[in-house]
Amino acid sequence: MAKLELRGVVKRFGDVTVCDGIDLQVAAGQMVCLIGASGAGKSTLLRCINLLEPIEEGEIYLDGQDIAVPGLDPQTVRARIGMVFQSYNLFPHMTAFENAMLAPRRVLGKTRDALTPQVEELFTRFGLAPRMHNYPDQLSGGQQQRVAIVRALAMQPEVMLFDEITSALDPQLVGEVLDVLLMLKQQGMTMLLATHEMGFARQAADKVCFLKDGRIVEEGPPEDLFGAPQHADTKAFLARALK
Known about the structure:
Blueprint: E1 4-13, E2 16-26, E3 31-35, H1 42-49, E4 57-62, E5 65-66, H2 74-78, E6 81-84, H3 96-106, H4 112-125, H5 141-153, E7 159-163, H6 171-186, E8 190-194, H7 198-204, E9 207-212, E10 215-220, H8 222-227, H9 232-241
Parallel strand pairs: 3-8, 3-9, 6-7, 7-8
Antiparallel strand pairs: 1-2, 1-4, 4-5, 9-10
Helix pairs in contact: 3-4, 3-5, 5-6
């Protein structure tokens, strides 16, 4: 059974269909990359999985349970599915450490004493221990994005969603954030990420899905999708993206 499975997911904004019958399976421990032009539906799909957007049709299964049914408490789902956005969304009046402590204390009801060793270990693991008592404006963009990842991991999620997390970074800072994703992959985290980093998707993903107009046009192992794409739209996109 897939860790995460989407069946016929449809999301509309007014008359515009942004996700148009999407089927997708993510196995436990897999890294799946969503690629495609801006407006293809990648970010909206991630927001639907995290229940930030309600869907019009379809099902979203986490360990076989449909989490998209009306009336389900989204907080219980978000405790299991972490999400990191392209904008870091850190609270500027809190230190990096305080940012990471906030959600598990409020949502999970954990005490500061119980959380401190776990959160300190996360900062150490991602090379941020010397910076964890700094405020966001004292950190580089890459450091802020790594803090955002630590904050999501402090909830001890089962699945992580990443929405174009390198797009706001200077090119020299992109590598340090991608290294964190590789570390998470090695540790067996189940991940679904929307990305414009084609080289990273080709190197690190277990599966790549190319989206256009709210549909998954083609999916497969990166060596197949990048090396021998079957669909004309995929070929055209990669010809532009890999220039």
